[in-house]
Amino acid sequence: MNTARIVVLTIAVGAGGIAAYLASGSDSNNKPVAAEPVTQLQTVDVLVAKSDIGLGQSVKPEDMQWQTWPAATASSTFIRRGERPDATNQLVGSIARAPFITGEPIREQKLVRADGSGFMAAILPTGMRAVSTEISPETGAGGFILPNDRVDVILSKHEKNPDNRAGVSDIVNSEIILTNIRVLAIDQAPKEKDGQNAVVGKTVTLELKPDQTETLARARQSGTLSLALRSIADVNIVESRADDQTRKRGDSVNVIRYGVPTQTTTQK
Asked: Which pLDDT band holds residue 176 (cuts at 50, 70, 90)?
């Protein structure tokens, strides 16, 4: 009897020891893991548009605000508060050469100081000229040309047919005199209004180089000018040679015989 009690007591003590060991191991596994330190993101304050700023709009203090920006993605062209804390006052009165959308960083390349000049003189790039000429819905791509579009300028002239063949006394000579020209304004509207996709006007203002202004002035006295709307993809096209892109006078002649136009090519 005593032997049985000793055996039972031994088993009980052993079971208790095992339970205590397992309990201590479970507590050690439940210890919280220390969180890794979080790397602090470097930021800078960048001047951005607080609201939309349209083409030709004069910038006011309430149009701009400072916004925290990741330093790694902040371009060198952005205006930083640490470098120019008084930038909001310095830029007041500048004119937007291109539109800004809300939250877009302000860049001085898209602003210009008017310094008392008119709007058109302020937005013209250095060395360029603004020249206006008459248009109509028929000569202005049906009114679907908007400011900032690119166009080709076509000159059409009625001339006497020297051969007078088939009883045709007049011929129509058409040529592209200017290519890939930026439209600055239609009438006195330098920008698209209310999202409209057509502007019917009587006058178009074009951005031209000095020598192109002479070409346009001569053409206005010679015949009828028409505008051909170009694709938006042509904005950054660089014309390699004017001869390759512009059809010179005498290269192509449209001859109208009994109301039916035909095109012939002549040799220089």
From this structure: very high
Token pair recorded at residue 235: 């904005």
Non-local CB neighbours of 172 within 8 Å, separated by 6+ positions: 156, 157, 158, 159, 253, 254, 255, 256, 261
Is 130 found in the same domain as 105?
no
Number of domains in the chain: 2
Q: For residue 108, what is the domain's CATH number?
A: 3.90.1210.10
DSSP class of 223:
S
Which of 132, 144, 160, 146 has its CA nearest to residue 225? Answer: 132
In a shared domain, residues 185 and 55: no
Judge if 114 and 147 occupy the same domain.
no
- Domain range holding 88? 43-122
Q: How much is the pLDDT for 142?
A: 60
Q: What is the pLDDT of residues 221-245, one digit of tens each?
A: 888 888 888 888 776 665 543 444 4
Task: Indicate if 167 and 259 belong to the same structural domain.
Answer: yes
pLDDT more than 70, % of the chain: 65
Residue 79 has pLDDT above 90, yes or no: yes
Nearest to 142 by CA among 199, 203, 205: 199
Q: Are residues 142 and 230 in the same domain?
A: yes
With contact defined as beta carbons under 8 Å apart, do 183 and 150 qualify? yes
